[in-house]
Amino acid sequence: MRYWVLLVFSWMTLVSFAKEYVKVYHENGELKEQGWIKNDKKVGYWHQYHANGTLAAKGKYTEGNRNGYWFHFDTSGAKSAEGRYQKNKKTGWWLFYDDKGNINHKCQLQKGIKNGYCLKYRNNDLKSAEKYSKGKKIKEWFSFASFKRENNLADLR
Question: What is the pLDDT of residues 52-65, one digit of tens each?
Fold first, then answer.
């Protein structure tokens, strides 16, 4: 009897921890996304693709939610954005790139909304800075000297 109880318990444990690797395809037959499913939720590292087959995004899921650091790419394969997700919402500093691979702007986000600073660049030079509170722009600077004078640069971390 103990043997059967142990066997059933072992089988239930294996089933509850079972993960399945899945691939999903676009209607044109190109791979759309691939990664692990556990208990009908995305888990672990995933790769997502544009309909033309190029990588669109890669990062980690936890219990069906994007969590941790993610990279996003345009249809030509160039990096377009990167940053951290927490429960499917963009959070912390996000970097956005132009078509030459240079940082175009970077913003502090909270629950997917601009909340903090956004710094805008042209040819790798800071051109302007904006401050947001809960998605609303409250101030903009076009001079780094005035921006530095009016702000605690430790807030940029």
Answer: 999 999 999 999 99
